[in-house]
Amino acid sequence: MKYSLDTNVIISHFKGDKFSGYTDNFFSWVKDSGHELYIADIVYAELYTGVYLSNDSKSEEKRLQQFLGVNNIDVKYTSSKTAKRAGELYAKNLLKNKRSLKRILPDFIIAANAEHHSDALITWNPSDFDINREVMTPVEVMEVAA
Fold this sequence. Notes:
Blueprint: E1 2-5, H1 7-15, H2 20-33, E2 36-40, H3 41-53, H4 57-70, E3 73-76, H5 80-96, H6 105-117, E4 120-122, E5 134-136, H7 138-145
Parallel strand pairs: 1-2, 1-4, 2-3, 4-5
Helix pairs in contact: 1-2, 2-7, 3-4, 5-6
Protein backbone atom coordinates (compact mmCIF):
# COMPACT_ATOMS: atom_id res chain seq x y z
CA MET A 1 0.00 0.00 0.00
CA LYS A 2 1.00 3.58 -0.60
CA TYR A 3 0.21 6.06 2.16
CA SER A 4 0.32 9.85 2.04
CA LEU A 5 1.01 11.53 5.36
CA ASP A 6 -0.54 14.68 6.73
CA THR A 7 1.85 17.06 8.46
CA ASN A 8 0.37 16.34 11.89
CA VAL A 9 1.50 12.70 11.80
CA ILE A 10 5.16 13.66 11.45
CA ILE A 11 4.85 16.55 13.89
CA SER A 12 3.40 14.11 16.43
CA HIS A 13 6.64 12.14 16.32
CA PHE A 14 8.80 15.24 16.86
CA LYS A 15 6.64 16.96 19.48
CA GLY A 16 5.94 13.96 21.67
CA ASP A 17 2.23 14.82 21.86
CA LYS A 18 -0.62 12.62 23.09
CA PHE A 19 -0.50 10.62 19.83
CA SER A 20 3.28 10.16 19.62
CA GLY A 21 3.33 6.62 21.02
CA TYR A 22 0.80 5.52 18.40
CA THR A 23 2.65 7.50 15.74
CA ASP A 24 5.95 5.80 16.51
CA ASN A 25 4.24 2.39 16.50
CA PHE A 26 2.82 3.25 13.08
CA PHE A 27 6.24 4.10 11.64
CA SER A 28 7.68 0.85 13.04
CA TRP A 29 4.76 -1.09 11.58
CA VAL A 30 5.27 0.51 8.15
CA LYS A 31 8.97 -0.44 8.17
CA ASP A 32 8.12 -4.04 9.05
CA SER A 33 5.30 -4.35 6.51
CA GLY A 34 7.00 -2.74 3.51
CA HIS A 35 4.40 -0.10 2.72
CA GLU A 36 5.41 3.11 0.97
CA LEU A 37 5.13 6.56 2.58
CA TYR A 38 4.80 9.90 0.83
CA ILE A 39 4.38 13.52 1.76
CA ALA A 40 3.21 16.33 -0.48
CA ASP A 41 5.63 19.17 -1.10
CA ILE A 42 3.37 21.45 0.96
CA VAL A 43 3.84 19.09 3.94
CA TYR A 44 7.59 19.36 3.38
CA ALA A 45 7.23 23.16 3.45
CA GLU A 46 5.16 23.03 6.64
CA LEU A 47 7.79 20.82 8.29
CA TYR A 48 10.51 23.25 7.24
CA THR A 49 8.53 26.09 8.79
CA GLY A 50 9.04 24.29 12.10
CA VAL A 51 12.73 23.81 11.35
CA TYR A 52 13.25 27.53 10.75
CA LEU A 53 11.18 28.54 13.78
CA SER A 54 13.30 26.37 16.08
CA ASN A 55 16.17 27.69 18.16
CA ASP A 56 18.67 25.48 16.32
CA SER A 57 17.58 25.14 12.70
CA LYS A 58 20.70 23.21 11.61
CA SER A 59 20.15 20.40 14.11
CA GLU A 60 16.39 20.39 13.48
CA GLU A 61 16.96 20.11 9.75
CA LYS A 62 19.36 17.21 10.30
CA ARG A 63 16.84 15.55 12.61
CA LEU A 64 14.05 15.97 10.04
CA GLN A 65 16.14 14.68 7.14
CA GLN A 66 17.29 11.66 9.15
CA PHE A 67 13.69 10.87 10.07
CA LEU A 68 12.51 11.13 6.46
CA GLY A 69 15.43 8.98 5.30
CA VAL A 70 15.10 6.28 7.95
CA ASN A 71 11.39 5.98 7.20
CA ASN A 72 11.87 6.14 3.40
CA ILE A 73 9.40 9.01 3.11
CA ASP A 74 9.40 10.40 -0.42
CA VAL A 75 8.27 13.93 -1.34
CA LYS A 76 5.68 14.16 -4.13
CA TYR A 77 5.58 17.44 -5.99
CA THR A 78 2.35 19.17 -6.90
CA SER A 79 1.58 18.98 -10.60
CA SER A 80 -0.78 21.34 -12.40
CA LYS A 81 -3.36 18.52 -12.43
CA THR A 82 -3.04 18.11 -8.66
CA ALA A 83 -3.20 21.88 -8.11
CA LYS A 84 -6.36 22.05 -10.21
CA ARG A 85 -7.94 19.28 -8.12
CA ALA A 86 -6.93 21.08 -4.91
CA GLY A 87 -8.65 24.23 -6.16
CA GLU A 88 -11.77 22.21 -6.96
CA LEU A 89 -11.83 20.61 -3.49
CA TYR A 90 -11.25 23.99 -1.81
CA ALA A 91 -14.00 25.71 -3.83
CA LYS A 92 -16.48 22.92 -3.01
CA ASN A 93 -15.62 23.29 0.68
CA LEU A 94 -16.03 27.08 0.59
CA LEU A 95 -19.42 26.79 -1.14
CA LYS A 96 -20.57 24.06 1.25
CA ASN A 97 -19.57 26.14 4.27
CA LYS A 98 -20.85 29.47 2.93
CA ARG A 99 -17.32 30.65 2.20
CA SER A 100 -16.20 30.21 5.80
CA LEU A 101 -12.41 29.88 5.94
CA LYS A 102 -12.31 27.15 8.60
CA ARG A 103 -9.82 25.19 6.52
CA ILE A 104 -6.87 26.40 4.55
CA LEU A 105 -5.71 25.69 1.00
CA PRO A 106 -2.67 23.59 2.05
CA ASP A 107 -5.06 20.95 3.44
CA PHE A 108 -6.64 20.62 0.01
CA ILE A 109 -3.24 20.39 -1.70
CA ILE A 110 -2.39 17.56 0.71
CA ALA A 111 -5.72 15.89 -0.11
CA ALA A 112 -5.28 16.22 -3.88
CA ASN A 113 -1.75 14.84 -3.67
CA ALA A 114 -3.07 11.87 -1.69
CA GLU A 115 -5.67 11.22 -4.40
CA HIS A 116 -2.99 11.19 -7.10
CA HIS A 117 -0.18 9.32 -5.35
CA SER A 118 -1.52 6.95 -2.70
CA ASP A 119 -4.11 4.47 -1.57
CA ALA A 120 -4.93 6.35 1.64
CA LEU A 121 -4.24 9.59 3.50
CA ILE A 122 -2.99 9.17 7.06
CA THR A 123 -3.79 11.97 9.50
CA TRP A 124 -4.72 12.59 13.10
CA ASN A 125 -7.64 14.73 11.82
CA PRO A 126 -9.62 12.53 9.39
CA SER A 127 -12.69 14.78 9.55
CA ASP A 128 -10.66 17.53 7.86
CA PHE A 129 -10.58 15.59 4.59
CA ASP A 130 -13.37 14.65 2.19
CA ILE A 131 -11.59 13.02 -0.75
CA ASN A 132 -11.74 10.06 -3.12
CA ARG A 133 -9.36 8.01 -0.98
CA GLU A 134 -9.51 6.38 2.39
CA VAL A 135 -8.62 8.78 5.19
CA MET A 136 -7.47 7.09 8.39
CA THR A 137 -5.52 7.63 11.56
CA PRO A 138 -2.29 5.68 12.02
CA VAL A 139 -4.11 3.46 14.54
CA GLU A 140 -6.93 2.70 12.09
CA VAL A 141 -4.44 1.70 9.38
CA MET A 142 -2.78 -0.82 11.68
CA GLU A 143 -6.15 -2.16 12.89
CA VAL A 144 -7.44 -2.67 9.34
CA ALA A 145 -4.27 -4.53 8.38
CA ALA A 146 -4.36 -6.80 11.45
